[in-house]
Amino acid sequence: MNKISGEKLDCAFIFPPGGGFESNFFFYNIGSAYIISFLRQHGYKAEQYVCREHINLENCVKEIIITNPRVVGFTVFNTNFLTSILIARQIRAISPKIIIVFGGPAATSYSEFILNRYPFIDACFRNEGEETFLQFLSRLTESKFDFVKTDLGNIKGVTYRYEDSVIINPDSNILAENSIFQDYLDKYPSPYLSGIIPGADAFTTGLLTARGCNQHCIYCNCAVLSKRKITTHSVERVISELDYLSGYSDEGRVLNFYDDAFSLIQQRAKTICKTIIENRIRISLSCITRCDCADEELLDLMKEAGFISIAFSLESATPKILRIIGKVHKAEDNPSDALEKETMFIEKFGKMTAYAKKIGIRKVFSSVMTGLPGETLEEANKTIEKIDSCHDIDSYSQNLFTIYHGTPLYDTYRKYGYKVDFPDNNPVFSRTIYPDDVVYKVKISSKSQFHETQKSLHNSTLRILSLAHEKNCKKGWFNNVILFSDTADRDFVDWLKMILAINGTIIQIYSDETALSGNSDKNHENYIRYCTPSLNIRDCYLERDGNLLLVCYRSPLLRSVKEKIVMKICDFKHVKTNLTNPEVDFIKVMCKESDSNDAGLAYTYFSEVKKEKDLFNYLINKKPFPYFANLCKWTKDLANCSEKNTLFVNDRSEVRLCWYGQNIGKAGQTYNTLIKNFEYYQQMISEQRKCNICNAKDHCNKCISPFPLSDEEFCSRQIGNDISSVAELYRSVDAFKQYIR
């Protein structure tokens, strides 16, 4: 946020992270950037809050408040709802005069609920916000930003608090009503050309050429919100943005068009592509579209214009199911014809995906849904078989059909046998309960992106559990918490607000699968009810397999026991025995030394490895090693007790910084107290060992818990042979494992 503290800011816009394990930072949002550019055009001072590193609640709120905003506006989805609530509540507690408003999909769907439950939120903006927000700020200016005295009565699209009531003004429908005017969206300045979003960030944030959808899908609210109207930017506007952004394009960067479907107006899509070609703009592009809104001419133009990835949505390969969900024809439970449109849609899907690959589109992608209304297991598997039979489809997303508020299906889902559960009576976190077990039995093709998602999730979880090196620029919080407990109560959740980064990772490890099954729903409800700073929660459970301890996941899309295994835990003897065994894979293995002899075996091995002339190539050319939980004690400064990224908590609320570390306090204590406790133990042990006069003091990290070695064994080995360079290289190589198949 490029804002000098002290100068009044009319509005600070916040897009908090939430949900997914890759979205831990505060980034730009294309929707709020449009509003900011429009407000600036009319003389208001507005900024987007951006933070590109982990940050906790306290420091995040400080950074926002120091910008001196009159209004703070949140862009809220279901995924970041809790983090938005948490930050908003804290802002109100510290600075009561700041006006707090919500916008985005969640605010559009649940505005009345939000204002009734959360008294610190003053208003919600429904649907598009540019002109509504401008009117809002204009009225606030008239009342000198006194919200109580501001008349919002005739501003359409706003839900607001008035005395003890919640007032829901009529919908604005600005874009739907103005879609008859050509290229109405050009009224709003470009977030890129006006400098709101840096050009380099476009490849994360994306580009809009149009808004709205004219289709009939009953599971989606895009067409409902846009009144089945499409509002466009001019081709000239799109080209000017692409020309500008091409200056930031390089190998590997792809700009995504975030239109609901790029070629809903097919001729316009062709014109855009032709103009890109005529202007010789070089930029890699991707989009989602529909096979019935494309032909070979369009695909040829898209290829020449720079599209390297095209997604064609399918959802189902059964004509009857497509009719029920309104994918091609207006939804009907009892078809009024022979389903010719749906049959043609499925046929064209095969033709368009094949042609796209034939002409050289690098990635041809699709999406399907399982658990659709009236769908049998045979029909669901038929869809997966259709994907597999289309050899030109590289991958697909296998989505679970979900009932959302505001969709055409929401008022009629009960007739199909679905139920909707509301944890903590909160509709934002509704869960779809299926009438049968199809979603648990349907095939999962090797093309499913679920496998890649699981692989990334497993790699990330493994790195956290093994305390792999992770840079932590700022101190004052932990990025990850590993909880060994079958429960998560209010005290624990309240404590997380103090010590965990916003959307940091919570790995909860249950004692066994039965404990996970019996407690996870209740714990999840507690996380929601008491407003956790993160729903990036990974539920695991422990299981024994001979001498190996397994850390496992559970998911409706996991089919085999092997897929459930996140990590195998073994001792070093097992590693040493199987180093040359081609049948033993260490990619999903973590080594924890079991006793003093096992630790000695590991130390001897690393001492021998140190003699290699080119250690890096030696490691790279070997089969992948496991992660090492105890190796950090031999590093100079790559131990978690130095970086303080991850915290362990057991079922007695005892806190430590590594698997076998010294207890440094109890859950409920502040970050500073825990760190002071750790530093006290470190100082005490250093004095006992006389570290200040030790020959190893320059390379030893003074590990306070060198388990399974005793202090004497640890110190004698540190003095005898410095293996810190080997240990640090092994831990650095861990970063490459995510790329190993």
Strands in their spatial order, largest beta sheet: 23-22-21-20-19-18-17-24-25-26
User: How far apart, in Å, are the first and last alpha carbons?
Assistant: 39 Å
Estimate nothing, just give the exact number of structural domains. Answer: 3
Unreliable segments of 5+ consecutive residues: 2-6
Biggest sheet features: 10 strands, mixed
- The shape is globular
What's the average pLDDT? Answer: 92
Please, how many helices?
A: 26
Secondary structure: number of strands: 26
Quick recap:
With 741 residues, the chain is an alpha/beta fold. It has three domains: 9-171, Cobalamin-binding domain (Rossmann fold, 3-Layer(aba) Sandwich); 177-445, tm_1862 like domain (pyruvate-formate lyase- activating enzyme); 454-739, no CATH class. The chain has a ten-stranded mixed sheet, sandwiched between helices. The chain has a seven-stranded mixed sheet with strand order 2-1-3-4-5-6-7, sandwiched between helices.
Structure, described:
By secondary structure, the protein is an alpha/beta fold. The protein folds into three domains: 9-171, 3-Layer(aba) Sandwich (Rossmann fold), CATH 3.40.50; 177-445, Alpha-Beta Horseshoe (pyruvate-formate lyase- activating enzyme), CATH 3.80.30.20; 454-739, no CATH class. It contains 26 helices and 26 strands. Helix 3 links the parallel strand 3 (69-75) and strand 4 (99-103). Helix 1 crosses helix 5 (130-142) and helix 2 (57-65) packs across helix 3.
